[in-house]
């Protein structure tokens, strides 16, 4: 039987110190890589959100006329069954209008928007939707010859209350 030679204690201590130093270095590198991985994952998540927002924005189709079936929500030129509905719900039902005036405030309750669709092919009528605080406040069907000279910005009851 051959006897194995034992290394002197000094050599073992040196090897142990070397291994501990290498382990410390690997721990530091691992920590740096974990931090870098977390930063890259955060950047990836941010880019994914931006991509989803861009896809949603690109999917919005601006429509001259409201979506088919819009008439059911407007039984009379001065009346709508959508009064009090959110902008999101109205957009879902009618689509994105070709004309929009909006004033966005710090406090959402003070937001004001006016949407105008041209619901008829051979007619200059406009379907006007007035939103206050992101809810449909009033609607009307009336003549529309463009924004210039329309006096929409002079409606004190809408803008000031």
Question: What does it look like?
Answer:
There is one protein chain. The protein is of the alpha+beta class and 161 residues long. It folds into two domains: 14-59; 70-160, Beta-lactamase Inhibitory Protein, Chain:B, domain 1, CATH 3.30.1450. Helices cover 40% and strands 17% of the residues. The protein is built from three helices and four strands; from the N terminus they run ααββββα. The protein has a four-stranded antiparallel β-sheet with strand order 1-2-3-4, with no helix packed on it. It is rod-shaped and about 105 Å long. 12% of the residues are buried. The mean pLDDT is 89.
What attributes characterize this protein structure?
alpha+beta, single chain, Beta-lactamase Inhibitory Protein, Chain:B, domain 1, 40% helix, rod-shaped, 2 domains, 17% strand, 4-stranded antiparallel β-sheet, 3 helices, 4 strands, 161 residues
Described by the principal axes of the CA atoms, the overall outline is rod-shaped
What value does the average pLDDT take? 89
Structural class: alpha+beta
Query: What number of domains?
Result: 2
Low-confidence stretches: none
Q: So, CATH architecture of the largest domain?
A: 2-Layer Sandwich
Strand order of the largest sheet: 1-2-3-4
- Order of helices and strands, N to C? HHEEEEH
